[in-house]
Design goal:
Elements (H helix, E strand, L loop, with lengths): L13 H26 L10 H6 L3 E12 L5 E11 L5 E11 L5 E10 L10 E8 L12 E9 L1
Antiparallel strand pairs: 1-2, 2-5, 3-4, 3-6
Length: 157
Amino acid sequence: MAANTAVERRGPSKALLASIVILLAVGGGAFWYLERLAKQPPSTGPALTAEARDYVRYLKLSGVEMKATESYMKQTVVEITGLIANNGNRPVRTVELNCVFYDSYGQVVLRQRVAIVRPNIGLQPGENRNFRLPFDDLPESWNQGMPQLVIAHIKFD
C-alpha cells in the first residue's frame, strides 16, 4: 500500500499580502497627490498694479528670437533672446514675463514666470538691455512655436 502523502496547500503569506496592500496604498496616494498638484494653477506672483499697467506701454520687447541648442549633458535647451527698452521716464527695478507655451491644439502646456530685468541692475529711462531666457524642461507636447510673452510684473525704483 502506498503511503498517503498529503501536500499542504498554503495561500500567500500574511506578510506578502500586507506588503501588497501597503504598496497599493502608497501608489494610490502618490497618484492622487500628483494629479492634485497638476491641477493647481501655477504661482503667479504679484499682479500688475494700476501704475504698472499704465507703464507697460513704455516697455518694448524687440528682436525676440528662439533657438534650440544642446547642453553639455546632451539635453535640448530652448533659448529665447531679445531686447527690452524702457521708453518711459521712470527707472524700472524689475520686469517679469509670463512665458506661455502651447501644444498643437492651442492648449497651455507650460506657463513660466521669468525675470528679464533684475533688481541688482535695473533699467533706466531710455536704456535698452538684452535678455536671454533658457528653458530646459519644456513638455514634449509643446508645439515648438514661440511662446506668448506677457509682461506680468513691474517694480519701480
